[in-house]
Task: structure prediction
Amino acid sequence: MDLREFVLSLDSDAFRALTSACLDRVESDRTGASSLTYKERLLAERGDRIHAVKAVKQRLNISLKEASDLVKEQVPQLAVESYNESM
Result:
């Protein structure tokens, strides 16, 4: 099976998951591994820091404290409050 056949065989959910993972990888390569992905940043900005920290911890294989510090550093509480006020 070549790549084209593989991609065509995916259902829509699997295709979305694959493209999302590819985009996260490209973004990580472009910005450095210590940056948040788009999804992680969006989670944190929406006030779901627990899931953002969990995702960062798993992706980077770092401690919970390191992941929490990274999220706090890259998405300050002010950004979260601004997002919530705009809703």
